């Protein structure tokens, strides 16, 4: 087993299990602040032990459990324009930026069409629409949904020309406390939809993402105590930067090189 997968599995199995309904009730956080960290597995083990300690003030973080499983397989297909408008808007930290993706929860078969926006004050705002098994990800209903979201949020038209740009696969364990959710991703693989080339993340790193209603959470402060700082990294921009180094600005190249040592 890949070390990062083993680390998230051990952490999830050591925590109190909670069903998806409890996670959604306590910390669905469709509008939130996100911070991302590339965490070595030995540091992650200590960090997870602190989070799930039963003596933690306010109670320990619990782990998402569905049908007896504590960690799950995810696949995402990202859509972008031919000139990669979404990628470049995120790389340049533009205000009215968005990402479009289809997410497949491989262990349950659930599919979601998602539009992620940059909200006020640096928050991430996610809009999602369920997909039926036979639905086309960019069918009429989804395009209408996208157009409505972008019009209401930014007053702009949706791009007409969209194609798959990147597919990612990873495994995830999720930890939750009231108003806080932490996702821990391992075994990330990105595949360039244009060239078919793929890149695999460092198996000794866990991508930890803190999601909360405040800019800094307890988990952020714990990670800072280990000498870690939030990284300019998303799975979409990081993997595409690793696969196409000519696209990446300097700071993206450095982070992509850390996450993906054997770059495309």
UniProtKB/TrEMBL annotation:
InterPro entries for this protein: VTC_domain
Residue stretches making up the VTC domain: 32-243
Record Pfam families: VTC
Organism: Streptomyces benahoarensis
Annotated protein name in UniProt: Polyphosphate polymerase domain-containing protein
Highest taxon in the source lineage: Bacteria
């Amino acid at each position: 087993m890949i070390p990062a997968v083993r680390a998230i599995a051990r952490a999830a199995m050591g925590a109190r299990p909670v069903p998806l309904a409890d996670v959604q009730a306590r910390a669905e956080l469709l509008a939130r602040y996100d911070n991302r960290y590339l965490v070595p597995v030995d540091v992650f083990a200590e960090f997870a032990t602190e989070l799930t300690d039963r003596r933690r003030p306010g109670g320990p973080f619990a782990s998402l459990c569905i049908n007896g499983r504590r960690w799950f397989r995810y696949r995402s297909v990202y859509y972008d324009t031919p000139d990669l408008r979404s990628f470049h808007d995120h790389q340049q930290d533009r205000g009215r930026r968005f990402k479009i993706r289809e997410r497949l929860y491989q262990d349950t078969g659930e599919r979601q069409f998602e539009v992620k926006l940059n909200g006020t004050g640096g928050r991430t705002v996610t809009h999602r629409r369920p997909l039926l098994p036979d639905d086309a990800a960019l069918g009429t209903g989804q395009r209408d949904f996208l157009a409505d979201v972008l019009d209401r949020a930014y007053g702009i038209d949706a791009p007409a020309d969209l194609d798959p740009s990147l597919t990612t696969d990873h495994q995830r364990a999720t930890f939750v406390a009231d108003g806080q959710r932490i996702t821990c991703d391992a075994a990330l693989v990105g595949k360039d939809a244009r060239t078919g080339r793929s890149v695999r993340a460092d198996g000794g790193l866990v991508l930890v993402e803190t999601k909360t209603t405040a800019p800094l959470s307890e988990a952020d402060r714990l990670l800072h105590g280990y000498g870690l700082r939030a990284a300019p990294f998303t799975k979409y921009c990081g993997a595409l930067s690793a696969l196409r180094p000519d696209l990446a600005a300097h700071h993206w190249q450095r982070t992509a090189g850390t996450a993906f040592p054997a770059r495309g």
